[in-house]
Amino acid sequence: MPAAAPLPQPRTPAEPMPMNEAPKPAVRMYATATCPYCIRAKALLLERGVTQLDEIRVDLQPALRAQMIERTGRRTVPQIFIGGVHVGGCDDLVELDRRGGLAPLLAGDGG
Ligand SMILES: N[C@@H](CCC(=O)N[C@@H](CS)C(=O)NCC(=O)O)C(=O)O
């Protein structure tokens, strides 16, 4: 009897597609290079699993500061957006995290 052909192995994708996961919202932060509040906010976002942070450097492109003020009504950096939600500055981000609202927002469940 001839040797049986090996059975095909099931394909194992390198990264299985999560079935029930909402797409992650974009995280954007108006910032400058040296502002300690920006550094703190960035550290917290990275700590909470953000891997893609779009930093809008208002110190490099001053016109973007005007855009930030127009969009947020605020003059200080950082100003943080998660998806379509304007979170506010560093203190607002820390407070949102303390109340347990940051993780769901980053997970795309925050409205
Ligand atoms: N409470 C604010 C403070 C932010 C802040 O004072 N940022 C400074 C830079 S580190 C700033 O933008 N200063 C410019 C200004 O006050 O016009 C926050 O937590 O984001």
Q: Write down the secondary-structure element order.
A: EHEHEEHH
How far is the first residue's CA from the last residue's CA?
A: 64 Å
- CATH fold node name: Glutaredoxin
Domains counted in the coordinates: how many?
A: 1
Fraction in beta strands: 15-25%
CATH superfamily name?
Glutaredoxin
Number-wise, the strands total: 4
Rg over alpha carbons? 21 Å
Poorly predicted residue ranges: none
- In the CATH scheme, the class would be Alpha Beta
Shape estimate: elongated
Tell me the strand order in the biggest sheet: 2-1-3-4
**How is the biggest beta sheet arranged?**
4 strands, mixed
Distinct compounds present: glutathione
Fold and architecture overview:
With 111 residues, the chain is an alpha+beta fold. It has a single domain (27-107), classed as Glutaredoxin (3-Layer(aba) Sandwich). It has 4 helices and 4 strands, in the order E-H-E-H-E-E-H-H. It has helices spanning 36-47, 62-72, 90-98, 102-106; strands spanning 27-31, 53-57, 79-82, 85-88. The protein has a 4-stranded mixed β-sheet, sandwiched between helices. Helix 1 (36-47) packs parallel to helix 3. The longest helix has 12 residues, at 36-47. It starts with 26 loop residues before the first strand and ends in a 5-residue tail after the last helix. The structure holds glutathione.
Write the layout of secondary structure elements.
Elements: E1 27-31, H1 36-47, E2 53-57, H2 62-72, E3 79-82, E4 85-88, H3 90-98, H4 102-106
This protein binds glutathione (GSH).
Summed up:
With 111 residues, this protein is of the alpha+beta class. Helices cover 33% and strands 16% of the residues. Helix 1 runs parallel beside helix 3 (90-98).
